[in-house]
Amino acid sequence: MKKTVNQLIFAGGVLVVWETLAFLKVWPPYLFPTPQGVAESLWDGFKDHSILIGIMISLRRVVIGYAISVVLGILLGMLLAANHFLEDTLGRVILGLQSLPSSCWVPIALLWFGLSETAIIFVTITGSLLAVTQATKAGFDNVPRILTMAGRNLGAKGPQMFWHVLLPASLPYLVDGLRQGWAFAWRSLITGEMIYISLGLGQLLMAGRDNEDINLVVAVMILIALLGYVVDGVLFRKLDTSLRDKWGMAIAASK
Prior knowledge:
The chain is mainly alpha-helical. The protein has helices at residues 2-24, 35-47, 50-82, 84-88, 90-97, 106-113, 117-141, 145-153, 159-193, 201-210, 214-247.
């Protein structure tokens, strides 16, 4: 209850400061939006269905890209953790590529796939894949040896060792990697959607820029942040809870 009250007080304070700055016209109206203007842009967007369409298209794209990056990232992370040669070679390359922002992959996406849906999904995958890979590798690398020794003493080997020892012990890192991967996928998606005119939230951002509509730009930015927060808070919080119930591990304690 206290947490909710604090959040409401903070949100109210932000609105008051925002409204005050807009009223004082510290910046010109075409550069600094008003809360009312942003609210009207959101209302108009939902009324003409442009925002709803953009949300649905963007969510479909990010789900596809994120799902691919999770599957590939987990498999690649497991290979790196199991093979020292791959860890010393490919692992170093992946570590270096992590420093690249998602926008760096846009030129390659355009050259390989042109102005297409595939290019957007490719940028989304590249933004998320490396985070999931590194987290998976870290999870398996940090499994305490005493757990694997205990598993062997109890007769676990092969698939049994993986499902009942290695996987549960690596879950704290894996869940963190999935959460980071989602955040990176969501950011990369918006970057990808801005590379050419197509339906989606990124396209709405560009439309606001092209029309010099700061209210629409800020409205879409707030919507993007809100959707990312909701998915992270609802999906991954439930995932944490279900994993704790299934495996009896305090996943959130690693954060």
